[in-house]
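Lab channel / #folding
Pinned by the channel admin:
"Please post every new chain as: sequence first, then the structure tokens as a reply. Keep commentary short and put observations after the output so the thread stays searchable."

First post following the new format, from NK:
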Amino acid sequence: MIDIEHHFVEKGEGEALILLHGNGEDNSYFEHQTDVFAKHFRVFALDTRGHGKTPRGTAPFSIRQFALDLLAFMDRMCLPKAILLGFSDGGNIALEFALEHPERVSKLILNGANLSPSGVKRNVQIPIVIGYRVARFFSTFGSGAKQHAEMLGLMVNEPHVEPSALQRLTMPTLVIAGTNDMIKEEHTRLIASSIPGAILTFAEGDHFVANKHPKEFNEVVLRFLMPS
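Reply from TO:
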């Protein structure tokens, strides 16, 4: 069920490059990427369902639904194919989409993605689980707590992708994470080793390398997209 239209920023010309932000964010997360990448590509920076200026709608609040939303967006914008760059939950959306619609993805960039909640470091995941349980308890008393519970629920309950499924991906893929990422290093390495021919890069910084260290991040991405 597609009951929304995305709010998005569009800049540049050429091959389509779609930027997908993480949980609880909006397209402004990519403020240091949009203009830089727009020099070479037609960039679309989306607000995911229920994030930023995109309405929540009534459909399920799940990674799978977000991937369905992305398909509808590409159809609406007449984009037969696109490069997908997803950060965190955006990476999980991009991965879900690529597995379901590989013919629509020319290249795939996964930044800080995970295959399951167990891929997140325990010192990060435990407070999220506690916050989720508290928010669920209070969700019956107000819409704010319900929305907060939905956001946290994405990180507690999703995603669920078997590493063996990644062997089906044949598009050029870059897997990038921070040297001090909230995603376990061995989990990031598992993702990269499970995708045939994937390139793995660790950038100096934490989970938010694209925002905090944009120069290094952008250089890695552009080197992958436009090899000399």
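NK: The chain has two domains: 8-116+163-225, 121-158.
TO: also worth noting, The first strand starts at residue 8 and ends at 11.
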